[in-house]
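Below is a filled-in request sheet from our internal design queue. Each sheet records the structural input a requester submitted and the sequence that came back. We keep these sheets so that new team members can see what a complete request looks like end to end.

REQUESTER: design group, bay 2
PRIORITY: normal
MODE: inverse folding
CHAIN LENGTH: 330
BACKBONE (tokenized):
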């Protein structure tokens, strides 16, 4: 076992026995190394932010862990069937979506997850960038290989939006809403975005990369000044810092549950769950699809997820892509 793996194993043992004292002998036996080596790795972990207390003549106890996104830490207590069965974490990456595409091409299994502490080329929808400062938010991409037809791929966007909303509600105890097709809002401001990318041919989907960015502990100064839509973070809205490890575990769990539901029962339950979070029905909006604008009042979404707008004509307009803004912000 290499040094990093040894330290991961020590962390895993502590997390699996939360609050308990583990003797040096137990650690030594489990890891198959000398007591001096155990002591050396414990000291190393302390420099990485793990508060490990030495309990005289008994052993060691983990008092606190750093809020770092590491596979060994995320995996403790994570009981998913598909999502994040394998996790790669990076201190810095160009984009988790780009890395997930590479994994997909290399034949990585469905559910593989990529996580980064920071992205140097975080990508947003419609060719925009996604601000990705280090250590404060969640940037992740999940590789899926669903047995869906090409025109059903957008169902995964609704699924991911519901999963993000549920994770935020569970971990941060705030209610969020969704903005068609794939933004998550808190107090009317954008808190999370999804960039789902497809590799497909007319006969079907090869794979999908679900890219998810959630603003958790981002400070006001860390937001770019020229945002098209008002944005926020959990910290800014609630004054509370979020435990990112707990958040990402909850997010992976929600994605896993909803993915199983989609494959078993189809889109209808996901659509219902999404609609319950959609509070723009009856509101006047404008939709911009790459410069082509259309205004109207939101009727709801169609069975396939398209946005239905009342534009004053005899039939509702069916919209498949674009950026929605409430008329009050237009
Ligand atoms: C948007 O609302 O424009 C979508 C933003 C999606 C951002 C996430 S962060 C993780 C993943 N990697 C990326 O480069 N983008 C997505």
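RETURNED SEQUENCE:
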């Amino acid at each position: 076992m290499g040094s990093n793996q040894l330290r991961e194993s020590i962390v895993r043992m502590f997390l699996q026995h939360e609050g308990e004292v583990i003797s040096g002998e137990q650690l030594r036996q489990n890891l198959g190394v000398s007591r001096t080596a155990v002591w050396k790795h414990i000291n190393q972990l302390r420099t990485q932010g793990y508060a490990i207390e030495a309990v005289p003549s008994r052993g060691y106890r983990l008092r606190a862990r750093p809020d770092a996104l590491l596979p060994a830490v995320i995996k403790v207590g994570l009981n998913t069937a598909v999502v994040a069965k394998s996790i790669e974490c990076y201190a810095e990456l160009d984009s988790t979506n780009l890395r997930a595409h590479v994994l997909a091409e290399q034949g990585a299994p469905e559910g593989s997850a990529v996580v980064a502490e920071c992205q140097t080329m975080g990508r947003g929808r419609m060719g925009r960038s996604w601000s990705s400062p280090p250590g404060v938010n969640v940037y992740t991409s999940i590789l899926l290989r669903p047995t869906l037809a090409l025109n059903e791929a957008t169902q995964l966007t609704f699924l991911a939006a519901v999963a993000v909303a549920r994770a935020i509600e569970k971990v941060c105890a705030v209610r969020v809403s969704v903005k068609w097709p794939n933004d998550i809002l808190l107090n009317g401001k954008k808190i999370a975005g999804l960039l789902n990318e497809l590799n497909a041919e007319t006969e079907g989907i090869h794979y999908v990369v679900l890219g998810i960015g959630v603003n958790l502990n981002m400070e006001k100064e860390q937001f770019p000044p020229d945002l098209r839509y008002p944005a926020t973070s959990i910290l800014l809205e609630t004054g509370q810092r979020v435990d990112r490890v707990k958040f990402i575990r909850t997010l992976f769990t929600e994605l896993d549950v909803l993915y199983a539901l989609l494959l078993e029962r189809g889109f209808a339950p996901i659509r219902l769950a999404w609609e319950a979070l959609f509070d723009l029905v009856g509101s006047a909006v404008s939709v911009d699809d790459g410069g082509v604008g259309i205004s109207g009042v939101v009727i709801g979404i169609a069975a396939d997820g398209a946005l239905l707008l009342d534009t004053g004509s005899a039939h509702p307009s069916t919209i498949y892509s674009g950026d929605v803004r409430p008329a009050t912000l237009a």
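SHEET NOTES:
- The chain has nine helices and 14 strands.
- The mean pLDDT is 94.
FILED BY: M.R.
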